[in-house]
UniProtKB/TrEMBL annotation:
Family the UniProt entry places it in: Belongs to the major royal jelly protein family.
Lineage summary: Eukaryota, Metazoa, Ecdysozoa, Arthropoda, Hexapoda
Coiled coil: none
Main location: secreted
Gene designation per UniProt: 101737681
This protein's GO CC annotations: extracellular region
InterPro entries reported in the protein's UniProt record: 6-blade_b-propeller_TolB-like, MRJP/yellow-related
Subcellular location: Secreted
Official protein name in the record: Yellow-h3
Gene3D superfamilies: TolB, C-terminal domain
Signal peptide: 1-18
Length: 409
């Protein structure tokens, strides 16, 4: 495992590391005060600024994925002046604040009439090197929202850097005011046949399932996808705000005896739930599965809101505790009780609002987190002189040492 850690560590460890409560190291790969893009020339960058096409303060990184030598970052078009919505940076840049390279190229971000990308939220890479990308189709959600295109799932081949498929989500599964915000890919066999994508609608409380074999979509509703009233009232570093986000975080447990669990939760909530993927992969169960969605265990408490979560190869779930500037862990073999949850990283300066969290496909596996101070961005309170956005990584096997999430065999 030391190979990857060392080559990252050698050049980055000097400028940032966060100590977890039990001593293991959480690395900061990159950090930015403001995001900048790789323009073909400085003149073109200046032209974009003069034309209002690039307003640096309006760019916020949201989704993260890693494949081989690159990290992919989405920058949704929530405010005007976001010139590109999906980018890559090398895993080994010499800069601590590298420019984002629009991915796969600028053309995809300048296209009109829904022939390119509109506003990408998040990505999920399968183990065959296809990046599944969720495009909300909507721009300027924090200003004057305009739905330019349908929410769309794209598939991008990361070996050839080509968009290989595009699946607009059929309008019957997109409700008025839907916020289709997160996705997770479930691919099981070595060649990624039998692939499904699970998609969360955080504002209309739905779980949309996509089946790759015939490009079919269907949609589940369930009361466990709703937000909890009191957990919708947030206070973060003195900022009070109300978000009523339902179904959001999703992660997949281990494949066992032909099935695997999907773990899920509302963002504005304190509870974790689970459903067998065999249930949600069966469209005939859409109106006939209410008792299959079950509560896992205890509440995480009044500041227990979680954005993204992911399960590593050892079966340990990691989750972003957005009101605690922290990342938690839970060994999925243990009951979901507070005694079985631990904090693996916490920092009230460098980890404000951990937003996305993904496990990569490397050996050894690394976890990737983006922290982005989202509520401060929403209320125009980002300080451009401070480091606001970070790409954080850690070795999931290492950070659980000496916590209850460590398997004792
Ligand atoms: C976009 O679509 C509209 C309506 O179909 C059409 O009038 C316009 O020419 C198209 N623009 C481009 C650049 O293709
Ligand atoms: C929401 O949070 C604020 C700040 O902590 C508090 O003053 C207010 O009473 C809360 N509202 C409810 C309905 O709990
Ligand atoms: C951050 O944590 C440190 C140490 O626990 C504490 O002294 C400091 O007051 C905290 N700062 C904020 C802004 O919460
Ligand atoms: C750190 O390790 C100790 C045991 O060495 C354990 O009691 C404690 O709960 C751990 N802390 C966290 C945050 O997991």
């Amino acid at each position: 495992m030391k190979v990857i850690i060392c080559f990252i560590a050698a050049w980055m460890i000097s400028y940032a590391s966060t100590q977890s409560p039990n001593g293991s190291t959480i690395g900061t790969l990159y950090r930015w005060k403001q995001i900048d893009y790789q323009y073909p020339s400085p003149a073109q960058r200046q032209e974009a600024i003069d034309a209002g096409e690039f307003i640096q303060a309006n760019v916020i990184p949201l989704g993260i994925e890693r494949w081989k030598g690159r990290v992919f970052i989405s920058t949704p078009r929530w405010k005007s002046g976001v010139p590109a919505t999906l980018s890559s940076v090398p895993v080994s840049s010499q800069s601590e604040s590298p420019e984002l390279a629009p991915y796969p190229n600028w053309d995809w971000h300048n296209a009109v009439n829904c022939t390119g990308f509109t506003s990408i939220f998040r990505m999920s890479v399968d183990h065959c090197g296809i990046m599944w990308v969720l495009d909300s189709g909507q721009v300027e959600a924090f200003e004057t929202p305009r739905q330019l295109c349908p929410p769309t799932l794209f598939a991008i081949d990361l070996e050839t850097d080509t968009v290989v498929a595009k699946y607009p989500i059929p309008s019957e599964f997109v409700l008025q005011n839907s916020l289709i915000t997160n996705l997770i890919v479930d691919s099981r066999d070595a060649r990624c046949r039998d692939l499904h994508v699970y998609i969360a609608d955080a504002w209309r409380f739905g779980l949309i399932v996509f089946r790759d074999s015939d490009a079919a979509f269907w949609r589940f509703s369930h009361y466990s996808f709703y937000p909890e009233p009191l957990l919708s009232n947030y206070t973060l570093h003195g900022l009070n705000y109300q978000w009523s986000d339902g179904l959001f975080g999703m992660s997949l447990g281990k494949y066992h005896l032909g099935d695997r669990p999907l773990y899920y939760h509302s963002m504005s909530g304190s509870l974790e739930f689970t459903v067998a993927t065999s249930v949600i992969r069966d469209p005939s169960r859409v109106d006939n599965a209410v008792s299959e969605f079950t509560l896992l265990g205890e509440s995480r408490g009044g500041d227990g809101q979680v954005s993204a979560a992911a399960v590593d190869r050892n079966g340990v779930m990691f989750f972003n505790l957005i009101s605690r500037d922290a990342i938690g862990c839970w060994d999925t073999r243990n009951p979901y009780t507070n005694d079985n949850l631990a904090i693996v990283a916490q920092n009230n300066r460098t980890m404000i609002f951990p937003n996305d969290l993904r496990m990569d496909h490397e050996v050894p596996q690394l976890a990737w987190v983006i922290t982005n101070r989202l509520p401060f961005y929403q209320f125009n309170l980002i300080d451009p002189l401070d480091y606001n956005y970070r790409v954080i990584y850690f070795d999931p096997a290492e950070v659980v040492e000496k916590t209850v999430c460590k398997q004792y065999i």
